[in-house]
Design brief:
The chain is an alpha/beta fold. The protein has helices spanning 13-24, 38-46, 60-63, 83-97, 118-123, 146-149, and strands spanning 28-32, 50-54, 71-75, 100-105, 127-134, 137-145. It has a single domain (16-149), classed as Vaccinia Virus protein VP39 (Rossmann fold). The protein has a 6-stranded mixed beta sheet, sandwiched between helices. The chain is globular, with a radius of gyration of 18 Å.
Length: 171
């Protein structure tokens, strides 16, 4: 997303998340969190943005009833889910519900058996956005942006095909 002009060292997680919201200007936002996220409520009120909140221990059944959103934020959710269910949640959001996803993760809240590593997030196609530490409490933001997820490769064009006239043909 590379949206915040300031360094993560000089801002708070809330400021960083607000900068992401400002850069995307979503008109319909999805929040998946067991607890309300006041920043999202305030931002949506101030910016005429519809906020849909899913506050379930298992959010997957509720998500199946919902459509697409401009952006989704997952906060204080993965810390309490097993890996399989959490991967399904991220995959469902990323593939069906939105093109922009932000995950706010606090590893110290998760029991050791449920704790996610950096490579777990990277393996799901998310990019490390920022890290914050305050009084022994750590918070990490990861993001996914469909438009910038898969970089353009110079070789992926008809010039490098054996039969360039067949470029774009689906057999």
């Amino acid at each position: 997303m590379d949206t915040a002009a300031k360094s993560a060292a000089t801002e708070s997680p809330q400021e960083h998340l607000a900068a992401i919201l400002e850069s995307h200007q979503p008109s319909h936002l999805l929040s998946v969190s067991e607890q309300p996220v006041p920043l999202l409520e305030h931002w949506c009120t101030d910016h005429d943005c519809a906020l849909t909140e899913v506050q379930e221990v298992d959010p997957l059944p509720e998500l199946k009833k919902l459509g697409r959103f401009d952006m989704a934020i997952v906060a204080e959710q993965l810390e309490y889910m097993n890996h399989h269910a959490a991967e399904e949640l991220i995959g469902r959001l990323r593939n069906l519900h939105t093109q922009s996803l932000v995950v706010v993760y606090q590893p110290q809240l998760a029991p050791d058996r449920l704790r996610w590593s950096r490579t777990d997030f990277l393996g799901m196609g998310l990019r490390h956005e920022a890290s914050f530490e305050n009084e022994g409490r750590r918070m990490v933001l990861y993001s996914y942006e469909l438009a910038s997820y898969n970089f353009v490769r110079t070789w992926n064009n008809p010039r490098f095909w054996a039969n360039p006239e067949m470029w774009g043909y689906w057999w």
